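REQUEST FORM: STRUCTURE PREDICTION
Request ID: SP-0412
Submitted by: Lab K.M.
Chain count: 1
Length (residues): 158
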Amino acid sequence: MNRIVVITGASRGYGKKMADDYAVDNDTVIRLSRKAFDLNDQNAIRGFFDRMSSPRIDTLVLNAAIAPALCPIATNILSPIYNAFTINVISNLLILKCAKRLLNKSESPEVIFVSSELAKKATPYWGTYCMTKAALEMAAKVYQLENPWIKVRIETPK
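STATUS: Completed
RESULT:
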């Protein structure tokens, strides 16, 4: 079966690799990147999924993330922390919410949350990134419990 795959953060790095791998398997890949819309813009995210002409989504890959400037947590100003949580957690949850009606149309829906080893490893100066990835992993675990018919994976690139 030709799977329909939506991948966020697909213009470079791990997201691009995943998109290329799915394309080799002749799956239909919808690549979302910063050029597609601003992940800080909730209306743009909703609008994209409202206008999406695909009959379903079989696999949703939540890969989009930013790594804010490195600094000690106690001296970090709040705007980069807020921005990192908005992109790395909140926007991914909104994408998940907006994609749900199309995931529900799949015979075997799957959601892949892309995390980091830093979600489990406290690392000096990387605190904001560590916290956002830990929050995303917990969201994945809760989402799986709430939606047992959807295959949920947490993937940590090496």
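NOTES: The helical segments are 13-24, 42-51, 78-103, 127-146.
Reviewed by: T.R.
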